[in-house]
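FORM 7B: Structural annotation worksheet

SECTION A. Query
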Amino acid sequence: MPKQVARYSLEVQAKEALVVNSKDIADRIVEAILAQKLMPGARLGEQALSMLFDCSRTLVREALMQLAARGIVQVSSRRGWFVVQPSKTEAREAFEARRVIETGLIRSAGAMDKTTLKRLKQHIQQEKTALKQDDVGRRSFLLGDFHVCLAECLGNQLLADTLRDFTARTTLIAMLYQSSHDAVKSCQEHIEIVQALERGDKETAERLMAEHIGQVQSALQINAAPADPLAELRLALAPMNAPGAATKKTTLRPARCSPSSTSSSSSTSPSTYLGALL
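SECTION B. Predicted structure
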């Protein structure tokens, strides 16, 4: 074999070895959601993702189709792929699903060994460290990933995978409906759940988990009155002689990009947040 052909063959093999698979891409997108780096309605362009991951658009499309089947993204025939924007009904259903899964896991679990408890305590220590730092993304990821870690420690990988998707959806819900749940309080609730499991008190651990999920859900502003998206424009264009009309000069400003905006010119577009993760 000529030297040039051999060298080219090795270069191709090396490049192919670095190519990710569709599961890797899907996992990274879920991680970005858990870290609140991808917002509800963020656009996921196939071309942009293929460039970020240095792979074909076919692999990207496979990953997005996997996430669509799992309820994480959706596709529009005209606008492309987007992170889902759960409705109020879907928000309630997602939290209810998590409550059933997580309390059921605790109820049916056996005694936890020292290795498993050590892993949970290490995860909580990471949460504490993240709370003292400015990396909100890592803090958000760890607080959500605690529930996945707990499911794995309780010995059910299938439900752990399912729970990861539900946790990603509830993270999107928290962003969409402006959760006011305190991260420090959330970490403390995790500590109390693990302490109950360490004592072998599954009944208390189950109750604490149900209360924890319920408190996170109650912190959502799901029932708040929706803001008027035309309020600023309505005030600016009100007739000058109308009651309550603006008495000072009002300047129309460009509309803010919505989470589902397809514009690529805005540097703050949520669709670019994945780049921070790579």
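SECTION C. Observations
The first strand starts at residue 73 and ends at 76. The radius of gyration is 23 Å.

SECTION D. Sign-off
Analyst initials: ____
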